[in-house]
Amino acid sequence: MESENVRKDIQKALLYDLRLIFSTGEKDTYTREEIVELLDKIALAKDQE
User: Fold this and answer.
1) Cβ atoms 14, 42 nearer than 8 A
2) Model confidence over 2-43: pLDDT tens digits?
3) Burial annotation 17-47 (CB, 10 A radius, 16+ → b, else e)
4) Looking at the whole model, is its pTM more than 0.85?
5) By the 8 A CB rule, do 18 and 42 touch?
6) Could you give the CA distance from residue 48 to residue 33 in angstroms, rounded to a whole number?
């Protein structure tokens, strides 16, 4: 059960990271390609940690 809670916490943290990226960005709208590029950057950054 504890691992399930950890997984949920990680998901919430990732969603919050995404929210911050979009809310502090310079743009009001993003293309699909831009969103995919941002997600790739997040994934690569997480691999570096």
Assistant:
1) yes
2) 888 988 898 898 889 889 888 998 889 999 999 899 889 888
3) eeeeeeeeeeeeeeeeeeeeebeeeeeeeee
4) no
5) yes
6) 23
Looking from the CA of 44 toward its CB, the CA atoms found within 13 Å total: 6
In the 8-state DSSP scheme, what is residue 35?
H
- The pLDDT of residue 49: 75
Rounded CA gap, 34 and 25, in Å?
A: 12
What does the alpha-carbon distance between residue 5 and residue 19 come to, in Å, rounded to a whole number? Answer: 21
Give backbone dihedrals phi and psi of 5, rounded to 5 degrees, phi first. Answer: -65, -40
